[in-house]
Design a protein that fits this description.
Length: about 280
């Protein structure tokens, strides 16, 4: 990773919110900017289950795979994610996320990883190569369901039995595993972003005060707060890159004032190396 920091691209209003509240917003996966992001991993999972079903000749195992196929949907696999990049000053990301001007705020990797563990999040690097994506999801599926599929116990539909309880446990385990990996699957066209993601671990309960909503056009988007804490050691190591602006010196000074006001000290500030263009 680039100097062991992870960077979050944000607007001026977004930076104010992060520093003032000491939180990041993890967005519901059904409302990501690119709606196909989460769907791609889901489609790979469906395709792998189709392949397993088509290769199978045993009727009992076929019925088990078909039942698993019914459980896999975008609704059952949804979670909350927040995004970072190991690239702190990249033109394509400035254009995508800070078109009217903005900032990247950088945090030490080990600090974010520690806070993720404390709050039942996983911090993982996104995967762009198709062969790696297929391998990851195949392992997630096979690891959770192979023993159950090959178990000779009959699949009973008419009454609740021990086998039924086992079936629902296996189904839940599979969904939990896919929730952890599907948000990592991104189209190779975005590989230069070198994205990392905070992913809320499946099955976690979170306090109502961490829940919120914001508007994006005509859509109301749910999110939950990821707490960055108040520690001086954390915020003292934070970095900010100021994006291209016709008044970049003024912008740097305003960032200093923002951190002095809400963190009690200034912050390491860099200026983008990308020249300002009004047509951004």
């Amino acid at each position: 990773m680039n100097d062991q920091y992870l960077y979050h691209y944000t607007t001026p209003q977004g930076l104010i919110g992060i520093v003032k509240s000491k939180t990041l917003w993890a967005t519901h996966t059904m409302y990501l900017n690119d709606t196909q992001e989460f769907v791609k991993g889901l489609n790979i999972a469906k395709r792998i289950l189709d392949q397993l079903r088509n290769r199978e000749t045993n009727e009992e195992r076929i019925k088990k795979i078909e039942w698993l196929q019914k459980q896999v949907s975008i609704f059952s696999l949804s979670t909350f994610v927040a995004s970072f990049s190991s690239e702190k000053d990249q033109l394509s990301q400035w254009r995508a996320y800070c078109r009217e001007g903005g900032f990247t705020i950088g945090f030490p990797y080990e600090k974010i990883e520690q806070k993720a563990e404390e709050q039942a999040f996983s911090l993982m690097e996104c995967i762009y190569k198709e062969e790696d994506q297929e391998s990851l999801i195949y392992k997630a599926i096979w690891f959770k369901v192979s023993q159950w599929i090959n178990n000779p116990n009959q699949l009973k539909e008419e009454v609740i039995t021990y086998q039924d309880a086992e079936r629902y446990k296996v189904g839940g385990d599979l969904l939990f595993e896919l929730i952890k990996v599907c948000p990592l699957i991104k189209d190779s066209a975005f590989c230069e972003e070198k994205e990392w993601r905070l992913i809320l671990n499946p099955g976690q309960k979170y306090e109502s005060e961490k829940r919120g909503f914001f508007s994006r056009g005509s859509i109301i988007v749910p999110y939950i707060k990821f707490n960055l804490g108040e520690e001086i050691d954390f915020w003292g190591k934070t970095r900010v890159v100021v994006g291209a602006s016709p008044h970049i010196e003024d912008s740097c000074e305003s960032v200093k004032n923002l951190f002095r006001c809400y963190c009690g000290h200034t912050v390491c500030i860099e200026k983008t190396k990308i020249p300002y263009r009004h047509w951004w």
